[in-house]
Amino acid sequence: MYYDEDSYWWESEYYHRKALKYFNFNLNKIQPLIEGYEEEMFSAIEDSRIDVNQNMINGYFKKARDIVKAYDNDFNTYNTEPSGWLYRHYWRRYNKINRIY
Fold first, then answer.
1. What is the pLDDT of residue 58?
2. For the whole model, what pTM was predicted?
3. 3-class secondary structure for the chain?
4. pLDDT digits (tens, 9 = 90+) for 2-43
5. Domain coverage including residue 79
6. Contact (Cβ atoms closer than 8 angstroms) between residue 5 and residue 11
7. CA end-to-end distance (rounded Å), the chain
8. Under a CB-based contact definition with an 8 Å cutoff, are residues 41 and 48 in contact?
């Protein structure tokens, strides 16, 4: 299975693998963003009496994608230490197999 830029799963996997290179740093930075958005999303659904529909779900996915892309743009400005060599080597190998560059 190869990377497909039109696939939501592969887009997510690209950012996931990129974040793994600096795991500890990224976990501390992005986890509060994700938790805040999840809380916002769940509160909006639980506090309303509307039925969840596909348009609503698509909107939530779009906002989640926008959050990750914005974080990735910010991340590129940080000066951080990467994870260990063995860890990076492992993922570099799988990125090559899956054609994620």
1. 92
2. 0.67
3. CCCCCCCHHHHHHHHHHHHHCCHHHHHHHHHHHHHHHHHHHHHHHHCCCCCCCHHHHHHHHHHHHHHHHHHHHHHCCCCCCCCCHHHHHHHHHHHHHCCCC
4. 889 889 899 889 888 888 888 888 888 888 988 999 999 888
5. 8-97
6. yes
7. 14
8. no
Name the one residue in this structure whose structure tokens are 């974080």: 71
Whether 2 maps to a domain, the answer reads: no
Answer whether 68's CB lies under 8 Å from 15's CB. yes
Tokens 């916002």: give the residue.
40
Model confidence pLDDT, tens digit, residues 37-85: 999 988 888 877 778 889 988 999 899 889 888 888 877 777 677 778 8
Look at the chain and report how many structural domains it folds into: 1
φ and ψ at residue 99, rounded to 5 degrees? 60, 40
Q: Is residue 36 part of a domain?
A: yes
Name the one residue in this structure whose structure tokens are 């698509």: 58
The one-letter amino acid at 41: M
